Fold this sequence. Notes:
Blueprint: H1 3-16, E1 34-40, H2 52-55, H3 58-66, H4 81-88, E2 93-98, E3 103-108, H5 114-117, E4 123-130, E5 145-148, H6 163-168, E6 177-182, H7 195-199, E7 203-208, H8 222-231, E8 233-234, E9 238-239, E10 246-251, H9 261-276, E11 280-283, H10 308-318, E12 322-326, E13 348-353, E14 377-380, E15 384-389, E16 392-397, H11 399-416, H12 422-432, H13 450-461, E17 469-472, E18 480-484, E19 489-497, E20 502-511, E21 515-518, E22 527-535, E23 539-546
Parallel strand pairs: 6-10, 6-11, 7-10, 11-12, 12-13, 13-14
Antiparallel strand pairs: 1-3, 1-4, 2-3, 5-16, 8-9, 15-16, 17-18, 18-21, 19-20, 19-22, 22-23
Helix pairs in contact: 8-11, 9-10, 11-13, 12-13
Amino acid sequence: MNRVSSALAALFFALAGIVPAKAQQAYPGYDELWFYRVWFSDKTNSVSEYSPEDLLSPAAIARREKFGIPLITESDIPVSSQYIRTLTGAGFRLRCTSKWLNTALFSAAGAKDIDILREYSFIDSIRLVKYPLAPVKGSRSKYGITELQANPEAFDPRLPLNGNVLHESGFTGRNITIAVLDAGFPNADKIEALEPLRKRGGIIATYDFINDSNFVYDYYHHGTLVLSILAGSLPGIINGTAPGADYLLLRTEDFFSEFPVEEDYWIAAAEYADSAGADIITSSLGYFAFDDPSMNYSFSDMDGDRPFITMGADMAVSKGILVVNSAGNERIKEWRRIIAPSDGDSVLCIGALNHDLSISDFSSAGYSSDGRVKPDMVAPGVLIPVQCEPGVWYSSSGTSFSCPVISGLAASLMQAVPEASPVDLINALHESCDRYSSPDSLYGYGLPDFLKALRLLEDEHTLRPEVTMSIGPNPFTDEILFWFLEPPGSLSVTIAGVDGTTVLKRHFPTFVARSFRIDGLGSLAQGLYLVRIVTDKEKKVFKMIRTDR
Length: 549
C-alpha cells in the first residue's frame, strides 16, 4: 500500500466512524449477506467542530478555493458515529457512509425487520439494497463488447474531436487528477500500455469499496480497458486521451451481481475522490435494472433528481468535480434509454459513435424523463483500441469506451485553462458540438470540437495582452506564465542564466493555445535569467528575476 493510499484510507474510515471489526468466523461471505441503506434524520456534529484540514486534502481545499466553493458545509461533515455505534450494537456491520446524503450502508448476517428498525428516532428511512439471490447480471452485457484484434485497423479516437491538437501543444492532463470508478483493474499493474503511467507514479491511490481493501488489480477487467483508453500508450495502437494525468483507481462495481448497493459504493468513492482532490470522475457504469426487478428504476425516475446515485453525482459537481458518465448500451434492448447517473443535471452523459461518426446502434437514447437533452454529446465508442492483458490488445465497443475519450480530453482543457470551472467546461463543450443548435435524442448536442471549446474558454478566462506576447510574474518564484495575443502557431521557450547556460528548453511544433505555463522552477538559484521565446511570428527575450519571495 502506498503512503497516499494509506492516508486517504485512514481519512475515509475516520470520517465514516468505521472501527475495524474483530474477526468473526461465523460471519457469512459477501453474497450471503443482507445489505441495508439507512438515511439518518440529522447529524450529531456541527460544522463549527471541524477545520477544512480535518476533512479535506490540500488539493481538495485548493480546488474549492479556486472555484469559490465553501470549504465546509453540513454536507461535508461525517455522519453520526453515535448512530453508527447504536446500529453496530444491534447486529449490523458498517460498509460505507455518505456524508453528502447522510446515509450509511450496513450488512447483516440475516434479514432484519425494517419496521422495527424504523422505530429508532434517528432513522429517517431504511431500504434493503442487496440480499442473497442467484445472480443474473452476467447475462446483461452492460459493459459492451471486447474482441481480440490480431491485425486491426489503427484508429485514434482523439482525431475527430481535435484532441490530438491539444496533446501536441503539451496539454495532456498534467496536474489533473482523474478518479476512475469501475469494476476492477486486473493487469493494470502489468500491461505494457500503462508502463509509462506506472513509471512516473501516476497511480496515486487505489481503493476497493466492496472489500474495504487497497488492492484493485483483480476482479473484472472493464476498469483496465477504460484506464488504457485514458492513460495508455502503445505506439501506433493506443494513444491515451489523458496520458499526463494522475489517477485514483476505485472499485465500486460488483460484476457478479446487480443490486442498488453498488450505488452506495459509487457515492462513497465519489466522496473519497472529492476529499483526495480529484478534478474529474469518469464512470463507465450505470444503473436501472437489478437482479430483483422490484428494485428497478423506471424511466420516469431518470429525471436528474430521483436515482440515489444521481443525487451523489450532482453533489460531486457542486464540490467542483467534473463528472463524466457513459450513456449506456441499451438502445438495442428493451430499456432503450439512458441510465443513472447520466440523467444528472450536471453530469456529462456520453453516447457512442461508429468510426464514420454515425451513431452506434447500441448507444442509449435520450432525452431525460423531464425532457432535458441527453446524451449531452457523443464520441467514438466502437472498436476502440484497448489493452487488458500483457502481450495482446483488443478493440472494445460500448459507451463505456466513448466516456473516457471525453473525460480524458476534458483534462487537457482543464490543464490549458485551469481557471475554468466544471460548469464552464460543460457549457463550452456543449457549444463546441456540431449539433449545438439542433440537438436530438441520439446525438445530443453532437460531436464536440475540443479546439473550439478551448477558444471559448480562453475568451472567458485567459488574459489577452495588448502586445503580441507578455510574461510574468517578474520576479517569479516557482512558475512563469506566458500570454499571447493570438495562438503562436509554433512555440519554443528557452530559459538561460546570464552566463548563457541553458537551464530549461521547451519546443512545440504546433501550439494552439493563447497561454502557456512553466512550473517547477523553484529549484533554480536566485538571480537573473533570460527567457527567449520564438513563435511563427517573432522572437523576443525577456529578463526575469528568480526570487524565493
